[in-house]
Please model this.
Amino acid sequence: MDIFAVVGPPHSGKSVLVRALFRVGGVYVVPAQPDGEGMWNQYLKDSKFQVTKGSMDNTQWSKLALHASNVRRNLGLLRDHAILDMGGRPTPDKADFLQGSQAKVVALIRSDLLADALPKWEALASKANTSIVAYLTSVRTARSRIIQNEPGKPFRAELTGLVRGNEESVTHDPVFRAFAAYLKDIGDSSRPELPDGSGQIMDVNALAYHLGVNIKPGHPSTRPWWEPGHVRKIWKYVNSAQLPGNVPIRISGPSPNFVVAALSVALYRATSIYPRVEDPKLSQGYMQLHGMPIGAASGPFKHTMLDDVTYVNLNPKGDIFTVSDVKDWVLPDSGNKAVILGGHAPNWLYALAAVSYSDHVPWIGVMQPQLLDGHPGYVIVYANNGAARIGETASVNPPDD
Model:
């Protein structure tokens, strides 16, 4: 897997370019902008860094460089290539980030800034011991055109239309398509496992970035604000992604229970391999999902038969679990009814129950407190053969919570 860093001055169209690349498939966009700008800071600072817009001290840069070195092995959305959406200023510290991620550089520079900016980015690439593999000039009036596209030489072109909101039109530009094909041709699309054998990582925050899940305006949290309708986007993405068929996928990053459950079931149905859910509180750092037996309930479960569904409280006592506890558990039989999962349980237990029930029930809902105007409700995360609509919500009064 190769990593390409898109660099260049502000307002050159970098974000539009990388989003267009994502739309044509085969790449994973990493929203990494190490000058403190942009969305990478909003999504990652809770779990990895504490960074304010502007300068960062040596300790913060050290953490950021470490993150860059992990990008190659933490393969995120399991695409052929990763695109680093870099910040717009060629500060010397960015060389550490480029060198740590072993990124190849794509220079995208506005035509009016070309003479001043290009030498600075070439010097930065040289300092990072990497090369510029494509020289793109963002133009506002002229048509796009290819200047150089020859084997063994950097791709050179002028691109027009790189303005916010125009990503879809850009994907139909023949010059852009030639550039995307060039990246695919020169890149290494292999996907090695993590060194510890714990699978390929799918970062939920990065997934949110690609699916258009935004930070909630006015909310103190900087994490993506997932809505029930995003569940359909999760399923659409998983069903169209190029997923490995021989190694487990490890779901990483904080997110609501209904998101982790939906993603786990979608991955399992798409690959027939049980995914893993990361949890730093567990001794091995993650829970390996599997098909839990269904029958006479045994373990931290209490179920209630409602009119047309079975409500399963996954942890009525609020216990804390270890990996070894799971081996003796049996989920309650729903009597072929749909299942709603609730309770004060870790998200890996929601995922484990959802994956296990997905082979046996018509649909699965996951409770989300204050979902519907402050009232409890559930989100449908899985439905078999049109039994329900994924992403739909309904209110329900939890009998045990």
Observations:
- DSSP finds eleven helices and 19 strands in the chain.
- Residues 257-271 form the longest helix (15 residues).
